[in-house]
């Protein structure tokens, strides 16, 4: 474990120089602070909540000069304390580290840092001077010792990283405050560009994203989280206006030779994202898809009342406009193998198979051949074909859906639209425990879905090969265990039968068991997921990478697209360099995550209460009779109003290292 020499964190002074210690302070339990990259010790760390020095020879003037230089460079300039304060403090420290007299004394620098904290309008200005002010107050002797030398200090090796809680919560690490800034400035096309740096499916994601960013939004400490998702929807819709964004091969700066070809297996979010980033890097990409259309689970598994198919198709077409090719009705394990792809001359393969095979409930008499028994994914595929006019599928009587995730919500809301007399949702835990997006749960209630929580299926009742009901039991929560968690157990004697004509098992999905065969040389887990390196997504077979649901297990669209970007980056390294690079920003993210550096972040400057804008939507009585899109776009006026609620909770984190840090990408 890294040993702190001195520092201040959350107002607590730590001083272990020459064996002395501050009374009441215990050495902090810091994880992963020994080295930044291989053989490169971390000498100091500066952040919004304080700083730590691990090497007594660290020059504080230079360390804070580099930190404030990043703050000055990233200041939006919209308020004087941050715009001027960061520059004045940076320049004063810069002069001092060169052995010159600064325009500000140490006391004036500390006063300026406090003024920035108290009066800046956003998180960057409010936080960037905190550590410096604490350092001057607690360790003035270190600054004065450096000033007394009156000689230039050598610039130390360093790396500074600006982020925000919403950015770190996003699997794709989209710079959320930046794209909100562009909306505020009346430049939605610039905002769209920020999103497209990370993934090509902005309009799709703006409709179905589970909003990890909003869960992390610090605005919740004031009133409500910023409507990040509805702002993304506004931006994504903007590109279809008078001057829409048109993808073309001319957007690719450096097209590689024809033999630099990569195969992507699966045209879902992970595969499309990987193809997009590889195409933008100049590679020639072919996508093999088992279904007859693009989009994967986004196409067949998300009902059109949430994601209109023309919206998805428009974004998928970006791949062909960039030069990518789709090969449909081509199933891995049946129509071709990994070996076949390699023999066709592909330099690398990305497996993005998705999880399109349902998981059984494990109850008595669960026979998948029964008429009326459906898996969640299988049912949604039938809904997709019905709405698309490919094959009619009618529902009579009552429907029971078992599960509590987003697939279960899609099933119950689709079943009511398909004409079911009544739809029941059965879930073994409480409604608060449901993993589905809260908005989907609220919408299901509004559309008349009957919830049966703390209820579990025991057996399927059938007659003449048809489902006629489900035998259920009531459940109760157990006492909390040592970790504060509660399990559930059946209540003896509470069994009863719920009549129905259709039962849908929406409890999980898995990879098609026949897709990856042993002879492919790709290791599979006991859960039938592809085993890959967490950092590189490389599988056990050289040149073959994997990501999305087939690697993560059933996950989210945004997580799948993040894997697509990661895979493209590492495939590019593999083909160009023969090995993957070190990525400093990714390394810094690990430090933040491992030490939960956002956990105690709070709002100190008063903020006026302004509750969020909500998107207009069709009324429940109208929408449950049709598959038309429920949520509508907000106006430009509302988009501006909502963008103004963002507090730009940027924070800067900086490391001083022994040696130079290798350059890399995000």
Automatic annotation (TrEMBL):
Domain NADH-ubiquinone oxidoreductase 51kDa subunit iron-sulphur binding: 61-104
Matching SMART domains: NADH_4Fe-4S (SM00928)
Gene Ontology MF terms: 4 iron, 4 sulfur cluster binding; FMN binding; NADH dehydrogenase (ubiquinone) activity; oxidoreductase activity
Residues making up the signal peptide according to the UniProt record: none
PROSITE patterns: COMPLEX1_51K_2 (PS00645)
InterPro entries: FAD/NAD-bd_sf, FAD/NAD-binding_dom, Helical_ferredxn, NADH-UbQ_OxRdtase_51kDa_CS, Nuop51_4Fe4S-bd, Nuop51_4Fe4S-bd_sf
Pfam families: NADH_4Fe-4S (PF10589), Pyr_redox_2 (PF07992)
Taxonomic superkingdom: Bacteria
Name of the protein in its database record: Oxidoreductase
């Amino acid at each position: 474990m890294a040993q702190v020499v001195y520092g201040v964190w959350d107002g607590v002074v730590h001083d272990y120089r020459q064996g002395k210690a501050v009374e009441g302070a215990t050495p902090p339990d810091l994880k992963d602070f020994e080295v930044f990259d291989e053989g490169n010790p971390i000498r100091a760390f500066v952040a919004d909540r304080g700083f730590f020095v691990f090497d007594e020879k660290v020059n504080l003037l230079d360390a804070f000069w580099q930190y404030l230089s990043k703050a000055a460079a990233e200041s939006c300039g919209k308020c004087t304390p941050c715009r001027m304060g960061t520059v004045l403090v940076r320049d004063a420290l810069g002069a001092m580290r060169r052995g010159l007299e600064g325009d500000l004394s140490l006391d004036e620098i500390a006063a300026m840092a406090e003024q920035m904290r108290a009066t800046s309008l956003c998180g960057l200005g409010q936080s960037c001077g905190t550590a410096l002010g604490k350092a001057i107050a607690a360790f003035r002797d270190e600054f004065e010792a450096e000033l007394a030398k009156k000689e230039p200090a050598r610039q130390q090796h360093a790396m500074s990283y600006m982020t925000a809680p919403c950015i770190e919560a996003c699997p794709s690490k989209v710079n959320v405050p930046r794209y909100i800034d562009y909306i505020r400035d009346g430049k939605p096309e610039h905002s769209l560009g920020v999103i497209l740096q990370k993934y090509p499916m902005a309009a799709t994601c703006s409709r179905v994203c589970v909003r990890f960013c909003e869960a992390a939004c610090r605005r919740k400490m004031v009133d409500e989280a910023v409507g990040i998702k509805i702002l993304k929807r506004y931006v994504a819709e903007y590109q279809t206006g008078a001057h829409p964004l048109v993808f073309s091969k001319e957007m690719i700066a450096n097209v590689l030779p024809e033999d630099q070809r990569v195969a992507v297996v699966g045209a879902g979010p992970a595969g499309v994202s990987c193809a997009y980033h590889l195409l933008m890097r100049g590679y020639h990409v072919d996508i093999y898809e088992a279904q007859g259309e693009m989009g994967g689970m986004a196409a067949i598994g998300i009902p059109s009342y949430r994601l209109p198919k023309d919206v998805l198709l428009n974004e998928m077409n970006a791949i062909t406009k960039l030069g990518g090719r789709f090969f449909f009705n081509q199933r891995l394990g049946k129509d071709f193998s990994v070996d076949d792809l390699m023999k066709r001359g592909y330099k690398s393969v990305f497996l993005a198979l998705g999880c399109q095979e349902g998981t059984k409930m494990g109850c008595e008499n669960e026979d998948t051949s029964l008429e009326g028994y459906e898996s969640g994914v299988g049912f949604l595929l039938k809904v997709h074909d019905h709405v698309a006019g490919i094959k009619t599928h009618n529902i009579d009587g009552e429907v029971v859906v078992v599960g509590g995730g987003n697939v279960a919500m899609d099933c119950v809301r689709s079943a009511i639209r398909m004409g079911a007399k009544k739809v029941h949702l059965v879930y073994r835990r409480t409604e608060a425990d449901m993993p589905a997006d809260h908005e989907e749960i609220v919408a299901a209630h509004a559309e008349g879905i009957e919830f049966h929580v703390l209820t579990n299926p025991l057996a399927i009742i059938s007659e003449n090969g048809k489902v006629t009901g489900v035998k259920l039991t009531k459940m109760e929560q157990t006492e909390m265990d040592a970790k504060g968690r509660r399990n559930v157990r059946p209540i003896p004697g509470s069994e009863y039968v719920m009549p129905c004509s259709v039962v849908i098992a929406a409890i999980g999905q898995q990879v098609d068991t026949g897709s990856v065969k042993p002879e492919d040389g790709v290791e599979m887990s006991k859960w039938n997921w592809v085993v890959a390196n967490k950092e590189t997504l490389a599988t056990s077979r050289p040149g073959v990478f994997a990501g999305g649901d087939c690697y993560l297990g059933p996950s989210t669209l945004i997580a799948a697209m993040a894997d697509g970007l990661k895979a493209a980056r590492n495939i590019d390294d593999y083909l160009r360099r023969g090995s993957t690079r070190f990525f400093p920003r990714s390394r810094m993210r690990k430090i933040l995550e491992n030490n939960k550096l956002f956990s105690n972040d709070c709002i100190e400057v008063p903020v006026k209460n302004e509750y969020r804008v909500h998107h207009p939507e069709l009324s429940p009585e109208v929408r449950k009779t049709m598959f038309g899109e429920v949520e509508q776009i907000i106006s430009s006026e509302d988009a501006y109003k909502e963008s103004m609620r963002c507090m730009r909770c940027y924070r800067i984190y900086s490391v001083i290292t022994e040696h130079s840090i290798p350059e890399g990408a995000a």
